[in-house]
Each structure stands twice: as structure tokens, then as C-alpha cells.
């Protein structure tokens, strides 16, 4: 059961506030997940600080997506602990409760409403559970307009506010979807391969966007593009066979003999991709 500071039970997940007085917003401890006896996650430990921007890298099959599935409640671990702040046990919440509690996830494929304008897409996500009808037939309050404007500014789509979302470029759609997630004011944002398929310029702007979100939000980014990771990362976690192999700055990671050995030993191609061509 989830309780507030005074010990009374909290039922409405919107009212759940993670206790981050120790600086940590996400605790993943000794988490294992098996699929037919194969350990996709193996005693994994990960701590994300409140407001940090963390990059998660690792070869295909290392467990990155499974880890995101566990944090968002899509997959239940066989064992371990997953807490949001010190006190909220995420393993006791379902997927939608976790989202409402403040953990947003962006999938690779954008799911914007193509026929609606950029503005309306954000308006809809602002309405949340209140739904499409309430949102489209009620006048927006000044406060809501301001909030949408603020989000458009953040994602750099002010000029495109009244374009149908279907006319946006691939990169712009990705930003719109990040904007739609921001409407819920998540404390943690999980982003899986945000720059896949983007142009160089879009990739640069995405780096700026994600960097600007850190601080107010904690952002976890899974990405293969090492130049991109280098451009945004303060701390990088390397997953290997379902566990954390190394953690540190990008230069520490690239100089780490185990990281080099594992990727070089496994497959030269993924070594290049994962540790960077400069190694
Ligand atoms: N639903 C599933 N059923 C069986 N095996 C799975 C399932 N999901 C993931 N796996 C396996 O778990 C391992 C980790 O997968 P994944 O988390 O997708 O890795 P990554 O995202 O790092 O590429 C892989 O070997 C994958 O084949
Ligand atoms: Mg994956």
C-alpha cells in the first residue's frame, strides 16, 4: 500500500509524490527478469538521481528495453525492488498508475494524431483522462493556453502550432510526442532511441531539447548513436547481459577495459557502434 508522510493511504495516483530527499528518484535493486529461463535482466542495480540526464547503452539484447518495461510496469520482474523515490513501490502499481504517478515513456514510433494540429495534439494530452470530447468542446482556460504555449516553446514547434501533425517531419513528430508527454508533467521521462531516423540537424536539436529537460525532469535515454550520447551525456550506464557492466562519464566508459573487451570480444560491429569509432 502507498502511504503519505502521515501514514494515511493514498489512493489517487495523481497525488503520489516521490520522496527524493536522498537525491535519488528511481531505485532499481537486484532486479531479474527471465524469459523461458533466459535472464534478460540479471541482478541489475541502477540508481537515477533526481533531475539527471542518464544515457543507457549496450549491445542488442543487453536488456535495455526490458529495463524500461520493468520501470513502466509492462513487465514484472521475478525478483528485486523498483522504487519511485524512497517510498513508492512501483511493483505494486499497474502500467497506467505508474504513468499517472509521473513516469512517462516515449516509444520509438510516434503516435501523434496526424489530422489534428500540433496545438490540438498537446491540448488532448493536457486533458489526459478527461478525454477527447471534454477537451475539444470546452474552452481552454488562459492557464491551459499558457501551458500549451510553454510546451510548444520547449519543443521548438511554435511556428508549426496550427499545422496538421501529419505534415511534420519525422524529427518534429518525435518532439511533438515529447511535448505530449510533458503535458502530464512527468518527474521521469524514458526515451528509447530518440534520434533513430533523424537528420543531423534534428539530432542536434534533440540533444538540446533533452538537455533542457534535465533538471526539472529526470531523463533516461537509450541510444545507439554514440556521437549523440557523447553530446548529451553526463553519466552513461553500460548494460551487458542484463547487468550493469560500467557506469561513468563517456570518456571513462570508453577507456574502461571491460567495456572494450566485452564489445570487442563479442562482435566488432557492435564494438564500433557501442564504444565509439574513436576507440
Ligand atoms: N518477451 C520476450 N520473450 C522472450 N525473450 C525476450 C522478450 N523480451 C526480450 N527478450 C530477450 O531478452 C533479451 C534482452 O532484450 P531487450 O531488453 O529487448 O534488449 P535491448 O533492448 O538491450 O536490445 C534479448 O535476448 C531478448 O531476445
Ligand atoms: Mg531495445
UniProtKB/TrEMBL annotation:
All residue ranges annotated as the ABC transporter domain in the record: 26-266
Species this chain originates from: Colwellia echini
PROSITE patterns in UniProt: ABC_TRANSPORTER_2 (PS50893)
Protein name (record): Urea ABC transporter ATP-binding protein UrtD
InterPro entries (UniProt xref): ABC_AA/LPS_Transport, ABC_transporter-like_ATP-bd, ABC_transptr_urea_ATP-bd_UrtD, BCA_ABC_TP_C, P-loop_NTPase
Nucleotide-binding as UniProt keyword: yes
CDD domains: ABC_Mj1267_LivG_branched
Coiled coil regions, renumbered to chain: none
MF term (GO), any: ATP binding
Keywords, sorted A to Z: ATP-binding, Nucleotide-binding, Transport
Lineage: Bacteria, Pseudomonadati, Pseudomonadota, Gammaproteobacteria, Alteromonadales
Pfam family, one: ABC_tran
Signal peptide: none
Amino acid at each position: 500500500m502507498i502511504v503519505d508522510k502521515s501514514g494515511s493511504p493514498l489512493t489517487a495516483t495523481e497525488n503520489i509524490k516521490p520522496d527524493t530527499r536522498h537525491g535519488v528518484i528511481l531505485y532499481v535493486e537486484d532486479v531479474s527478469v527471465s524469459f523461458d529461463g533466459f535472464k534478460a535482466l540479471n541482478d541489475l542495480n541502477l540508481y537515477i538521481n533526481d533531475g539527471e540526464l542518464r544515457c543507457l547503452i549496450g549491445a542488442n539484447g543487453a536488456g535495455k528495453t526490458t529495463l524500461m518495461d520493468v520501470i513502466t510496469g509492462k513487465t514484472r520482474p521475478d525478483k528485486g525492488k523498483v522504487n519511485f523515490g524512497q517510498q513508492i513501490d512501483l511493483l505494486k502499481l499497474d502500467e497506467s498508475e505508474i504513468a499517472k504517478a509521473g513516469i512517462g515513456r516515449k516509444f520509438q514510433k510516434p503516435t501523434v494524431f496526424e489530422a489534428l494540429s500540433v496545438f490540438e495534439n498537446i491540448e488532448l494530452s493536457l486533458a489526459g483522462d478527461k478525454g477527447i470530447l471534454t477537451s475539444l468542446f470546452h474552452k481552454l482556460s488562459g492557464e491551459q493556453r499558457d501551458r500549451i504555449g510553454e510546451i510548444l516553446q520547449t519543443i521548438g514547434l511554435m511556428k508549426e502550432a496550427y499545422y496538421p501533425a501529419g505534415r511534420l517531419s519525422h524529427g518534429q513528430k518525435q518532439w511533438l510526442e515529447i511535448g505530449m508527454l510533458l503535458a502530464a508533467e512527468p518527474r521521469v521521462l524514458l526515451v528509447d532511441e530518440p534520434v533513430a531516423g533523424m537528420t543531423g540537424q534534428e539530432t542536434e536539436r534533440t540533444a538540446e531539447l533533452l538537455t533542457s529537460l534535465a533538471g526539472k525532469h529526470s531523463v533516461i535515454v537509450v541510444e545507439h548513436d554514440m556521437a549523440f550520447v557523447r553530446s548529451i551525456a553526463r553519466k552513461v550506464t553500460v548494460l551487458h547481459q542484463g547487468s550493469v557492466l560500467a557506469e561513468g562519464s563517456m570518456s571513462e566508459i570508453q577507456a574502461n577495459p571491460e567495456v572494450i573487451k566485452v564489445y570487442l570480444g563479442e562482435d566488432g560491429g557492435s564494438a564500433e557502434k557501442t564504444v565509439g569509432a574513436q576507440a
